[in-house]
Amino acid sequence: MSEILVLVDHVDGVVRKTTTELLTIARRLGEPSAVFVGAGYEQARDALATYGAQKVYLLEQPELTEHLVAPKAEALAQLADRSTPAAIMLTSGAESKEIAGRLAIKLGSGVLTDVVDVEPGDGTVVATQAVFAGNYTVRSRVTHGTPILTVKPNSATPEPAPAQPVEEKADVTVSDRARAARVVERSPRTQTGRPELTEAAIVVSGGRGVGSADNFAVVEGLADALGGAVGASRAAVDAGWYPHAYQVGQTGKTVSPQLYLAAGISGAIQHRAGMQTSRTIAVVNKDPEAPIFEMADFGVVGDLHAVLPQATEEINRR
Ligand code: FAD
């Protein structure tokens, strides 16, 4: 069976759900080989085995993580030269899209971004991509070189397929050019105790209608009552009320939770692009004509400053 290289997305060995999704999707094409860069593999081992990695390449050289993305692109290119995989898959994040682009140049390959599904075809990979802010899907294939695919988070439900991966320490060389930019400091995001936005089953998002940074407490209160994550529209982020890391939409994160609750958000196409695949969409907006109602499963026409605290109180009471 063909080998599919999957770049593992992890934080100190804690494997992100996006990687278990990638492994699930990669199995539609062949045998996934996980590429684990950095420290913490002991923590990651179980997750990679559970989701079907047949092989794990361990790249633990410090220079791969002490610099920005260039060394990772070089490392993947060297692995690809050695193992000639049928495809290389990464998650569709800002960092991995940059790695994908650099890698494609090195391998002389094509990249398909924002892939939501894959199937083998004509001796290559046929990918379904979400384009135009998720409003259309197109089927595409790379016609030259090893296909490089970045896969949108929440494109698959992770399905276990237990395996006993062969572990191989892989030595790669990192060029001086790739070391040109060095990471000098990492500032971990404040720990909120809430689930990661892209992985949460419930997301409560606030928009311009929230009115201020302090008022986001009502959004957080409801998210906490529901055990969910907090999101924000770009208007709220641009106003400085909530950090960009929580922005949902075309230029933010893509979420696909069981329940997405949008409060004080009008439903611009760029916001929809990041949440329209949510299973159930609930809306609180004081304007009954707000476009977001068109896509809502449930809607409350009302002031979020009254509705959200009432809902929080009721949920906490039960
Ligand atoms: P508004 O459109 O101003 O809507 C506010 C809503 O709150 C209104 O419907 C109003 O009725 C309601 N409201 C007001 N007060 C209350 C209250 N007290 N109670 C209840 N409801 C109330 N946007 C994103 O969100 N994510 C993106 O990633 C993104 N990327 C973009 C990329 C590009 C290239 C461009 C051009 C735009 C992008 N945008 C993005 C911006 C997008 O076009 C909208 O401007 C933005 O989504 C609007 O945010 P909003 O719905 O919070 O604000």
TrEMBL record:
GO molecular function: electron transfer activity; flavin adenine dinucleotide binding
Keywords from the UniProt entry: FAD, Flavoprotein
Keyword Flavoprotein attributed: yes
Required co-factors: FAD
Signal peptide location: none
Residues at which FAD binds: 208, 233-234, 247-251, 264-271, 285
Gene Ontology biological process terms in this record: fatty acid beta-oxidation using acyl-CoA dehydrogenase
Family indicated by similarity: Belongs to the ETF alpha-subunit/FixB family.
Job description of the protein: The electron transfer flavoprotein serves as a specific electron acceptor for other dehydrogenases. It transfers the electrons to the main respiratory chain via ETF-ubiquinone oxidoreductase (ETF dehydrogenase).
Name listed for the protein in its UniProt record: Electron transfer flavoprotein alpha subunit apoprotein
Organism of origin: Actinopolymorpha singaporensis
